[in-house]
């Protein structure tokens, strides 16, 4: 028993060491905001009644943010291993949602098997191993070539190009793009302690997700003309501009936890918020093409996993390569 207790204590201490004091302060701040939001949400519910659709949606979103923040905290607590494991599971869930929506033919079965049981685990192995050379080309080169080859072996030629493109696109978005988030943990940045790389992930996730939330808030507060009603009926011009600018300001406030100056944080924050916005539009276009509102119902109040990470899918690769090009040692 003493050996087990000692081992557990060592594991706990090692895990705690991965969560830097700055990360702890940020999570404390996030939880304080969520507590405040929860109080406001319950007060509005009592004031306006439980049947108010807008208030119910707001409370569902607050609940979902509690859940997602706790999951992030647990993953980050366990450092690189926990982060890679978390995003492996996120990619798996996103892949499953994408496949469920676009999968129509039995002849595509083996292409799906390749995505789930070859491309997904191998890509995350390269991330965990820190093998940038293979991590950066495995899916865009080898996956891109293998998937249509597998599809051709079925002998089915109907809609072949469309079917091959779907599996290629699915692997790029759900596996390749998302794997750039945990890959940030393995960068060696100039004048930046690698133990603080978790702060880069927090910068990326909080800024991009804040942009999504603030676009919703500004849109509800100000209203006005829709920015792209055919793709995303709920997004307004005022909401988009207000949300992106507000999240860019948040990026400036978070610059002390990064290797960026205030000006650099503003520029990078603006770019990733913009990419997140475009990512949301692209993923909405796919949903509209298939006649659905959400990718799934995994997260109450937020739809499916892809509904939560669509903006990160587009922002993460851009952020990763900006940081690696300009700051990597």
From TrEMBL:
Signal peptide: none annotated. It is an enzyme of class 2 (transferase). GO terms for molecular function: phosphatidate cytidylyltransferase activity. The chain crosses the membrane at residues 23-41, 62-78, 84-102, 109-126, 132-155, 167-186, 198-218, 239-258, 264-286. Its EC number is 2.7.7.41. GO terms for cellular component: plasma membrane. It holds the Pfam family CTP_transf_1. It comes from the Bacteria. Keywords: Membrane, Nucleotidyltransferase, Transferase, Transmembrane, Transmembrane helix. One of its GO terms (biological process) is peptidoglycan-based cell wall biogenesis. PANTHER family: PHOSPHATIDATE CYTIDYLYLTRANSFERASE (PTHR43535). This is Phosphatidate cytidylyltransferase. It comes from Neisseria sicca ATCC 29256.
